[in-house]
Amino acid sequence: MNIKILQSEQYIEAINLSEYAFQYKVSKERIEELKQRMNHHHIVYGINEDEKLASKLHLLPHHIYLQGNKWKMGGVAGVATYPEYRRSGHVKALLLHSLKEMREKGMTISMLHPFSVPFYRSYGWELFTNRLMTTLKKSDLKRIGNTAGSIKRFTTEEEHPDLTQVYNTYASQFSGMLIREAYWWKTVVKDMNIAMYFDKAKSPKGYLLYTVKDSKMDVEEFIALDAEARTGLWNFICQHDSMVEEVSLTTHEKEPLFFAIDEPRVKAEVKPYFMVRIVDVEAFTKNYEWDHTNLAEPLTIHVTDSFAEWNYQSFLFNKKGVKSQKPNKEGVTLTVQSLAALCFGYKSPAELKACGLLDATDEQLNQLELLIPQTTPYFYDFF
C-alpha cells in the first residue's frame, strides 16, 4: 500500500474523516486551530483510494518520564478508516509503517488510548496504567483539618511556571507520565479552573484542574506533592459544598487522599486506561536501568514480537550488565507486551506467571524480580 504523509491541503480531509469515524462535528472556528496543530505537532500518515483519503493515522512526537529519565515517545491517535475500506489491511499497514518511522526517529516507546484493548494487543501494545475514578456526594465533603498555606485560584490559556514545576516534580516519580511542552499545556488547561496550593513559604506544592457546572464539580487532575498540599486541596474542594451536589475526581489508583477523608467508603472504580508499546527492543534494553547487580546467576531473556520482526531479540543479563546474544533454548521467553508491562511496573513477574503469560522456573522468576526495578506507572493525559 502506498502510504504518504498528508500535506496541509489534505488536513481538511483528515478532519472530515475524524468527524465521520468518531461521530462529532468540528466548528468552523476550530478547523483552523486543528490545521495548525497538525501542521506543527502531528505527522499524519494516510492511504488514498480513488484519489481521496481512505485511512489515516496521526503520530504525535512526545517525551515521557521513565525511571526519572526523559524518553522519546511516539503517540498514536486519530486512527480511522471509512467503512467502505475497512478490513482491507489499511490500519495494519499504517501501524506497521508508523512503528518503522518511530524506530528510525529514535522513538523507543509508543503509546495510545485504545478503542479496543484486544485489537491493539494484537499489534504489540499493552496496558500499562489504571486510573481511579471517584464520585463523592455533598455529604462526603468534610474538611480534614487546617493547613498553614493558602489556595490561589486562576485561569490561563498558557503554560504557567508554578503549574509546570509542580507537575514535573510529580510526573517524574512515575513511569510513563508525559513531559508537557508549552503548546501541550494549552490543550490541558483550556476551559479549566486552576487551584494552586502554596505552603507557608509561598512555594507551590499542589494543584487542581477542575470545572464546576450544573451542580457538579469535576476534578480532572489532583496533584499534591505532600500531605499538607493534599489536605489543603481537599479542603478547597469541600468549600464548594454549597454549590455542588456531586464531586468526581480522577487520580492515581493509590492516591492516599481517600483513606484520610471522614468516610472513605465512597463510590470508586479502578479503570485500565492507556497502552504502551516497546518500538525498538534492542534500544530499549540498552537504555533501561536494570538492577543487574542483584543477579546471583546470569539470566537469558528472549523477546518475541509477532508484528515487528526486528524485535525478536535475545539478551544475556549478568552482574556486569546486558548484551545481545544468539537465541538458544535456555532462559525465559517474553512477548513484547509482557516486557512492557514488567518494565513500566504495571505487572510483576509473579503476576504474569499467575495469569499464564510467563513460563519460568522459581529460580528464573526470582532472578526477574531482582532484575526489574520497582516503578509505579501513571498517565494523566489523553490523545
TrEMBL record:
Residues 1-145 form the N-acetyltransferase domain. It comes from the Bacteria. PROSITE patterns: GNAT. GO terms for molecular function: aminoglycoside N-acetyltransferase activity. Keywords: Transferase. The keyword Disulfide bond does not apply. The keyword Transferase applies. GO terms for biological process: aminoglycoside antibiotic catabolic process. PANTHER family: N-ACETYLTRANSFERASE EIS (PTHR37817). This is Acetyltransferase. It comes from Alkalihalophilus marmarensis DSM 21297.
